[in-house]
Amino acid sequence: GAVVSQHPSRVICKSGTSVKIECRSLDFQATTMFWYRQFPKKSLMLMATSNEGSKATYEQGVEKDKFLINHASLTLSTLTVTSAHPEDSSFYICSARGQADLSSNEQFFGPGTRLTVL
Amino acid sequence: GENVEQHPSTLSVQEGDSAVIKCTYSDSASNYFPWYKQELGKRPQLIIDIRSNVGEKKDQRIAVTLNKTAKHFSLHITETQPEDSAVYFCAARKTSYDKVIFGPGTSLSVIP
């Protein structure tokens, strides 16, 4: 299957700082990328959907000014957690889907980023 | 919007026994139902999926059944092994352009 990478895998930051997480599709062009948040022992909660070259669509209850998403190219999307606070500590996972994958319906997940805000 | 429920939340079985996880969905327009396996700290891995024009699909020890009328679908794992221990998520989606909605997950433990 297609490969999606995320960087960093783990990040620890102080409260009030901003953190950027990168999601890359390594061997295909991702027309759509999804950002999820997962708390311990909980399900994946979709935060936003981003299509290359356009603004992200955020799910209800997700603050777009706090979670900035950029999908400027077909292989890279970034999530920036601005002014992070301890309650933002979570596992953030991206997934990507390319135009060619529409028939197969599959989206490919990145390995996740563990964010800890002190 | 779509709502996916999943039962049980935890499941323990003896090695070699079968495990069944059941899900329901609310939106009758959903037509694609993937199942994911997630090990601790890892990414979700697609293990099997089914589309609405099919009632059952099998891949070795894993099978999925779908009842569109009742809006139920189930995952069946036979001859369970310790390496099957993980959290399993069912999910649902309408069109290829729509988002995938995940169920709350089932933590499966296979006891050797």
Kindly describe this structure.
Chain A is mostly beta strands and 118 residues long. Chain A has strands spanning 4-7, 10-13, 19-25, 30-38, 44-51, 57-58, 67-73, 76-81, 90-98, 108-109, 113-117. The radius of gyration of chain A is 14 Å and the shape is globular. In chain A, 34% of the residues are buried. Chain B is mostly beta strands. Helices cover 0% and strands 54% of the residues of chain B. Chain B has no helices and 11 strands. Chain B has strands spanning 4-7, 10-14, 19-25, 32-38, 45-51, 56-59, 62-67, 72-77, 86-92, 101-102, 106-111. In chain B, the strands form 2 sheets. In chain B, strands 2, 4, 5, 9, 10 and 11 form a 6-stranded mixed beta sheet that branches. Chain B has a 5-stranded antiparallel beta sheet with strand order 1-3-8-7-6, with no helix packed on it. In chain B, a hairpin with a 6-residue loop joins β4 (32-38) and β5. The N and C termini of chain B lie far apart (41 Å). Chains A and B meet through β5 of A and β5 and β10 of B.
**Share of helix of chain A, binned:** under 10%
How far the N terminus sits from the C terminus of chain A, by CA atoms, comes to 37 Å
Q: Which percent band covers the strand fraction of chain B?
A: over 45%
The overall strand count of chain B is: 11
Rg result of chain B: 13 Å
Notable features of this structure?
heterodimer, A: 118 residues, mainly beta, 7-stranded mixed beta sheet, 4-stranded antiparallel beta sheet, 53% strand, globular, B: 112 residues, 6-stranded mixed beta sheet, 5-stranded antiparallel beta sheet
